């Protein structure tokens, strides 16, 4: 079948997928199937050797997952392409269209497991704290995160239709997006790192000096890789390489329409300048100051 015909077929299939419904758990907006599955999610039993990768959506999660997988496999590129990333690292709270959940995938996986979540701190299953599991959290500046999340929602049927950019700006500002308020999310995890083994990474620092940040992850995981292996990991987790890697770019996910917006869109710092109006930037800065007044957490909005 010709490539354009394949793309047309994919778009038709995507158009036929019904939009996911949204509900809430403790005031946090989540996809309805997650809420219906909440007892199973909340009671998930972590194991002491589990590694959890946590983040707000579109903050560098997939990037961090691929870095972790390559470190765990000593830079073995072929091994890291053994399966799509969502199968290598089960998405804990997600429930797929076929009703098979991330919890099911995690429970079927042998130890040691690497798992992924976007849950805010207060909704993480308590067994992760009880078992003192290592957690890597990655955070991205709010403006770029908002823009990336907006475009992700336009192409992903697993998430609500974001509406226009102006409408989405208001939704994000009010925290009424899936997985809740960005402010609550990043601050909650930042505070928790003082009492739990959490490596808190910043997207902007990863962009600025990827090798330094990859070395932090390596040391946190208790590994000791040679410099040439680290260089190999830096190269193979670059935006260009990952964008062309079908094992990381969700190319075959039927819920994502890459013709509307690619899953890996730009991978830059400061793209918010191309999206925010002057008034929106002023409003956001005022709101940001209020929300972040009670934390030592800070971000770069450009490099």
From TrEMBL:
Main localization is: cytoplasm
Q: Does the keyword Cytoplasm apply?
A: yes
Sorted keywords for this record are: Cytoplasm, Transferase
Catalytic activity as recorded in UniProt: 4-ethylphenol + 3'-phosphoadenylyl sulfate = 4-ethylphenyl sulfate + adenosine 3',5'-bisphosphate + H(+)
Task: Give the UniProt entry's GO cellular component terms.
Answer: cytoplasm
Q: What are its E.C. numbers?
A: 2.8.2.-
Localization terms from the record: Cytoplasm
What residues does the Sulfotransferase domain cover?
48-295
GO:BP terms for this protein? sulfation
The answer to keyword ATP-binding applying to this record is no
Q: What is this protein called?
A: Sulfotransferase
Q: Which domain of life is it from?
A: Eukaryota
Q: Which PANTHER family match?
A: SULFOTRANSFERASE SULT
Q: Name one GO molecular function term.
A: aryl sulfotransferase activity
UniProt xrefs under Pfam families: Sulfotransfer_1
Q: Which family does it belong to?
A: Belongs to the sulfotransferase 1 family.
